Amino acid sequence: MNEPATPALIVDLPTVERNLRSMAEYAAAHRLALRPHSKTHKSLRLARLQMACGAVGLTVAKVGEADVMARAADDVLVAYPAVDVARCRALARLAAEHAISVALDSAQAIEAIGAAVSRAGSTVGILIELDAGFHRTGVQSPEASLALARRAAAAKGVRLDGLMIFPGHLSGIEGQAEELARIGELLDRTIELWRRAGLEARIVSGGSTPTARRSHLLPSLTEIRPGTYIFNDMKTVAGGHVTVDDCAARVCCTVVSDAVPGAVVLDAGSKALSSELLHQSPDDAYGFVVEHPEGRVVRLSEEHGVVDVSRCGRRPKVGERVHVIPNHICTCVNLFDSMWLRHADGDLEETPVDARGRLS
To answer: What is the pLDDT of residue 12?
Structure first.
C-alpha cells in the first residue's frame, strides 16, 4: 500500500459512495433534481461519480471551475454573479458547446452577459437569485426579482430559466422547519408574481448540505445544490447532520515535535487545514484528531498545527501519523494539488484536484 508524504488529503472512497447514494436516493424520492456543487471536491473523478449517481448536472462557483467541470457534465450552473468582461466572455465561449446557466442579482450582470453571448453567438440561461436570509447576494424582494426577470426575458442572448436561493444561514437543525416555511412562502409569492406577469420559473434551485434533506419542505423547489455532503466535515457534524463516521476526507499528518509540555506539533498548519473555527464553544479547535479525540488543534501557523494533548490518555509520539477531519473541507481541498482515494481494500490511489486554484 502506498504511504504518501504528509500532510496528505485522504478520501475514503466507500464513504464517498455511501454519501452520494444516500443523497441521490433522497432527491429521487422527493422528485428533486440533484445538481451538486463541485467546489467541495474540485475533482473530475468525483464529479463523474456524482453524475453516475444520478446528478442532472453540476454547480460551480467560478467560471474557471466551470471550464474544468464541463468535461464531466454538459450542464453546468455558475452559482455566482458574472459582471466583469473577462468572466462573461469565458462564459459565452463555454456556452457555445455546453448548457451553461448563471445566477445573478443585478441588471448590470444581465447586460454584461448579454453583450458577451451576442458577440459569441451562444446562449446562457439566467437564474434570478433571491435572498432567502443569508444576506450575501440576492435581490431583496419578489418585486425586485420580477423586475430583473422581465429584463432577462427581454434581453438578447440570454434565456430566463428561473430562480435560485441559498439558505446558507441555516447551519443547524434547530429552527429549520420554521425558517424553511418562511422561505417557502417567499418563493410561492415570487413565483405567483412572475406567473401573473406571464413569466415562468421553470427551475427553482436551492438547497445547501445542512438543509438538503429538508428540501421537501419547500414544495416549489425543482432542484438542490448540496456540496459538502460528498465528504462532510466538522461543520456538518456540529450541525447535527452527520457523524464523524460520515466524514470521508481527512488530512493525514505526522507528529513532528513533542518538546513543549502538554502539546505536540503536526506537520499540517493553515496551509493544509485552513484556519476556520466552528465558533461554538470555548473548546473550539481547528479540526478533529481521529486517533486522539481528547486532543484539540488549538493553534495553526503556516506549517505547524499545535495540538493540546493535556486531556489525552495516551500522548501521541513523534513520528506517529494521525488523521484530522477539517472544520471546513471545501477550503481545505483547495490547498492540495491532489488527494488520495482509499479503496475498500485499503489501497490508495492518487488523483488530481483538477480545479484547484480556479478562483476567477
So the answer is: 98
Q: What are phi and psi of 134, to 5 degrees?
A: -80, -20
Give residue-wise pLDDT tens across range 45-80: 999 999 999 999 999 999 999 999 999 999 999 999
pTM for the complete prediction?
0.96
More confident residue, 280 or 236: 236
Does some domain include residue 160?
yes
Residue-number span of the structural domain to which 299 is assigned: 238-352
Residues 156 and 121 in one domain: yes
The CATH number linked to 132 is 3.20.20.10
169 and 267 in a single domain? The answer is no
Residue 114 to residue 119: CA distance in whole angstroms: 9
- Write the DSSP string, 298-350: EEE-SS-EEEE-TT-SSPPPTT-EEEEE-S-HHHHHTT-SEEEEEPTTS-EEE
Which residues are registered as beta bridge partners of 78?
Answer: 60, 102
Contacts 24+ apart (CB under 8 A), 219-222: 219/184, 220/184, 220/187, 220/188, 220/191, 221/32, 221/187, 222/32, 222/33, 222/162
Point out the domain boundary residue: 163, 195, 230: 230
CA distance 355 to 107: 29
- Estimate the share of the chain in helix, then strand, then coil, as percent rounded to the nearest 5: 35, 20, 45
The per-residue pLDDT for 279 is 85
Please compute the mean of the pLDDT values over residues 317-335 and round it to a whole number.
97
Q: Decide if 98 is inside a domain.
A: yes
C-alpha cell at 236: 456538518
Residues sharing a CB contact under 8 Å with residue 138, sequence separation 6 or more, in sequence order: 105, 129, 130, 131, 132, 164, 165, 166
Residue 207 has pLDDT above 90, yes or no: no
Distance from C-alpha of 208 to C-alpha of 192, rounded to nearest angstrom: 24
